[in-house]
């Protein structure tokens, strides 16, 4: 028995060591730095312990606190809007493609997934031109149907939504593939049985497809949430967090504070808070799903 | 069986001997490698490499290696690599970043001869911006200054005969230039780009007799600053400036630039280095662009714009030999013998980008080039320009002020609220940074 344990540990040691080295150590280091005053330009040894001061500051009323809380709200709004748009769209697209009768399903599947493969730098550059208020194609198209020009990325009221739309365009293909994978797991016999009992379109969707797709949807929510919280490139490439901080999301803000302003301790405190918020949210999503299952 | 080991021994010895000779040659030819971090574009990097090659002819023991990163990544690269093993020996930096780099002992104080070179051959204000506490930390190079750019054609159409000299004339011109039916605004204000937002504001403030910071204390709630916020508010409320037309992207282009080059903005306040962007965007219509001093406010004593400079610093973490070689290279590169006709090689390089050099002898050497209508307007205002304050926490201070100016632009704060909030935030930021 002891020999078996030893060999299990020996086999697990290489992978566990790598995980510890590249994941646990940086996390532990960040947590430690969150309680220090440290300039990222200096060695770790120069960090001085200041207790909870960094956390007090990021939740305080100074500009640091206001900007951080603003970035938290922006990130939460961005994540909520992204999930609220991506999931229903991916279910609709997934069901469309999954229908064997639909002609051109493979082409639609390829087109949808292709958006996910386009590098964000290209997406950001193209969308910044598409959104151009005066010469952008989006406004020209709106003019054809009698809608006046929209400011898109140029107004604090619409900039975040515009970045969300860009994200939805890029991510929906990936989630459609996940939904299709989920749909293929639902046995046809269940639909046939329901049909024999008289169930049709909406009833089939509401009482069979959706409940049996719950695990896939749960997985999609968690992945979409993690992706959304990590949004960085479109903000860094197009909006720089503006106008008036309306697109200043947490990852971009942490980079600005931690690296550009060299305030490593504050940046680490923000990172730890983001990590905790993400853990709590994902745990809550799973808890909610489990409760639903028990019902 | 006996031959193979011998052959191996022989080959091994031959290889070792070859390697030793090669390494001796390398050691003789390139005793010191100096790396030079810059954000310049490829064609400028090629000029820098050519200058380094010229320098190497007389200094065979030194190799200057150029590392180029995009502008947006320069500060990040500097923050993460400076002082590290393998970090850049020389780096081109924005003078606002210097106080923090000096505080963290990442930059090397210039040796006496180089420091004397800088204080003797550069204008006092520029040399001061390259110093912290009286210690010179690098060679100034690029200098940028703000001025009013206006579209002569739009002025003509609006019946405006000359560039506005006062705020009243400026506001009147902005109103006349505004044509909502054509989607045309009188004056363009930038948003979403910290320096692009703050520098024009600071130029108008300086021309109204004010300053952002005096003796390390922010002055954003002074009467001069309040009046500047009010001018912005008035322009926005009247529709003479449309905030949504002023967005800039990470490349400092975007709608703000598009609207000026396409003739939808009558006036902007912008720096000289934009010349190449304007030329690229406007082509022949670049001839319509004129430059004038910043309009003077009611409390101002004359037009004063904001200037800022770039400089090259040497890493304090480099070895003594690297530091010595780096300072020697910088002295030569910025000196009057490395370029043509009494200009420095750095001056040649800056002029290739349309940027104003700061060394006094370079300004004289490029006198003819600086007489072009566009650049002459900038050279004229240079002597009365006020350097942007280089203080600890400068980056955070700039971003904080940016947020309040943008809040006025988008009607999220009144001028009075913005002045009070900007002052409170700036005071807290500078006080904390000074600790």
The whole-number mean of residue pLDDT values of chain A reads 90
Globally, the shape of chain B reads globular
User: What's the end-to-end separation of chain A, in Å?
Assistant: 42 Å
Mean pLDDT of chain B: 88
Shape of chain A: globular
Most extensive chain-chain interface? A-B, 33 and 45 residues
In quaternary terms, these chains amount to: heterodimer
Spatial order of strands in the largest sheet of chain A: 1-2
**Number of DSSP strand runs of chain A:** 2
The helix-and-strand class of chain A reads mainly alpha
Task: Quickly count the domains of chain A.
Answer: 1
Q: Can you say what the CATH homologous superfamily of chain A is?
A: MetI-like
CATH-defined topology of chain A: MetI-like fold
Number of domains of chain B: 2
Helix fraction of chain A, binned, reads over 70%
How many E strands of chain B?
14
Structure characterization notes:
The complex is a heterodimer of chains A (295) and B (435). By secondary structure, chain A is an all-alpha fold. Helix content of chain A is 74%, strand content 1%. Chain A has a two-stranded antiparallel sheet with strand order 1-2. The longest helix of chain A has 36 residues, at 63-98. In chain A, 34% of the residues are buried. The mean pLDDT of chain A is 90. Chain B folds into two domains: 29-143 and 308-371, Periplasmic binding protein-like II (D-Maltodextrin-Binding Protein, domain 2); 144-307 and 381-434, 3-Layer(aba) Sandwich (D-Maltodextrin-Binding Protein, domain 2). Chain B is 49% helix and 16% strand. In chain B, the strands form three sheets. In chain B, strands 1, 2, 3, 6, 7, 10, 11, 12, 13 and 14 form a ten-stranded mixed β-sheet that branches. The relative contact order of chain B is 0.16. Chains A and B meet through helix 11 and helix 12 of A and helix 3, helix 4, helix 11, helix 17 and helix 18 of B.
Sum up the structure in keywords.
heterodimer, A: 295 residues, mainly alpha, MetI-like fold, two-stranded antiparallel ribbon, 13 helices, 2 strands, 74% helix, 1% strand, B: 435 residues, alpha/beta, D-Maltodextrin-Binding Protein, domain 2, 2 domains, ten-stranded mixed β-sheet, 14 strands, globular, disordered N terminus
């Amino acid at each position: 028995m002891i020999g078996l344990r030893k060999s299990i540990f020996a086999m697990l040691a290489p992978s566990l060591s790598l995980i510890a080295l590249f994941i646990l150590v940086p996390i532990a280091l960040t947590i430690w730095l969150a309680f220090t005053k440290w300039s990222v330009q200096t060695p770790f040894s120069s960090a001085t312990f200041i207790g909870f001061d960094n956390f007090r500051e990021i939740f305080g009323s100074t500009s640091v606190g206001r900007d951080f809380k603003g970035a938290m709200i922006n990130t939460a709004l961005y994540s909520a809007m992204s999930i609220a748009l991506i999931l229903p769209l991916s279910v609709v697209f997934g069901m469309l493609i999954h229908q064997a009768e639909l002609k051109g399903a493979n082409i639609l599947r390829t087109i949808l997934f292709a958006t996910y493969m386009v590098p964000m730098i290209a997406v950001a550059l193209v969308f910044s031109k598409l959104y151009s208020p005066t010469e952008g194609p989006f406004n020209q198209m709106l003019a054809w149907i009698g809608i006046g020009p929209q400011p898109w990325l140029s107004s604090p009221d619409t900039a975040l939504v515009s970045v969300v739309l860009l994200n939805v365009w890029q991510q929906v293909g990936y989630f459609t593939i996940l939904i299709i994978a989920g749909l293929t797991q639902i046995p046809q016999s269940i639909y046939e049985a329901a049909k024999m009992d008289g169930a049709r379109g909406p009833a089939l969707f509401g009482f069979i497809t959706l409940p049996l797709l719950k695990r896939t949807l749960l997985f999609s929510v968690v992945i979409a949430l993690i992706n959304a919280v990590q949004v960085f490139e479109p903000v860094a490439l197009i909006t720089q967090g503006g106008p008036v901080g309306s697109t200043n999301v947490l990852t971009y803000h942490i980079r600005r504070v931690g690296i550009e302003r060299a305030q490593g301790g504050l940046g680490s405190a923000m990172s730890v808070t983001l990590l905790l918020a993400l853990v709590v949210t994902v745990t809550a999503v799973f808890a909610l799903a489990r409760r639903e299952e028990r019902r | 069986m006996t031959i193979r080991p011998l052959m191996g021994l022989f080959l091994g010895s031959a290889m070792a001997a070859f390697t030793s000779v090669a390494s001796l040659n390398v050691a003789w030819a390139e005793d010191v490698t100096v790396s030079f971090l810059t954000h310049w574009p490829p064609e400028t990097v090629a000029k820098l490499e050519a200058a380094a090659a010229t320098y190497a002819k007389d200094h065979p023991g030194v190799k200057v290696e150029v590392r180029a990163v995009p502008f947006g990544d320069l500060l990040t690269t500097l923050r993460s690599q400076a002082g590290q093993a393998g970090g850049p020996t020389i780096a081109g930096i924005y003078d606002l970043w210097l106080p923090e780099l000096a505080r963290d002992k990442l930059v090397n104080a210039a040796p006496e001869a180089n420091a004397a070179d800088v204080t003797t051959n550069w204008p006092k204000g520029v040399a001061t911006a390259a110093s912290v506490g009286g210690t010179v930390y690098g060679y100034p190079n690029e200098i940028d200054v703000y001025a009013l750019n206006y579209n002569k054609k739009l002025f003509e159409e609006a019946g405006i005969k000359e560039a506005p000299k006062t705020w009243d004339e400026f506001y009147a011109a902005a109103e006349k230039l505004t044509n909502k039916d054509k989607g045309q605004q009188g004056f363009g204000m930038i948003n979403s780009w910290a320096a692009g937002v703050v520098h024009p504001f600071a130029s108008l403030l300086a021309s109204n007799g004010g300053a952002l910071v005096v003796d390390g204390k922010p002055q954003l709630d002074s009467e001069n600053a309040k009046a500047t916020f009010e001018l912005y508010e008035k322009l926005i409320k009247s529709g003479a400036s449309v905030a949504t037309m002023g967005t800039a992207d990470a490349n400092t282009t975007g709608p703000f630039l598009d609207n000026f080059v396409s003739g939808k903005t009558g006036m902007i306040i912008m720096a000289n280095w934009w010349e190449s962007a304007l030329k690229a965007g406007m082509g022949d219509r670049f001839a319509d662009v004129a430059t004038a001093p910043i309009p003077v406010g009611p409390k101002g004593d004359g037009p004063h714009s904001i200037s800022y400079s770039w400089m090259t610093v040497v890493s304090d973490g480099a070895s003594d030999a690297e530091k010595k070689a780096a300072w020697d290279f910088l002295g030569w590169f910025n000196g009057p013998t490395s370029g043509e006709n009494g200009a420095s090689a750095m001056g040649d390089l800056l002029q290739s980008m349309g940027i104003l050099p700061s060394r006094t002898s370079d300004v004289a050497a490029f006198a003819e080039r600086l007489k072009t209508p566009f650049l002459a307007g900038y050279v004229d205002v240079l002597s009365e320009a006020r350097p942007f304050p280089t203080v600890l926490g400068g980056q955070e201070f700039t971003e904080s002020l940016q947020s309040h100016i943008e809040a006025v632009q988008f009607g999220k704060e009144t001028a009075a609220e913005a002045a009070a909030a900007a002052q409170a935030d700036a005071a807290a930021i500078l006080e904390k940074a000074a600790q």
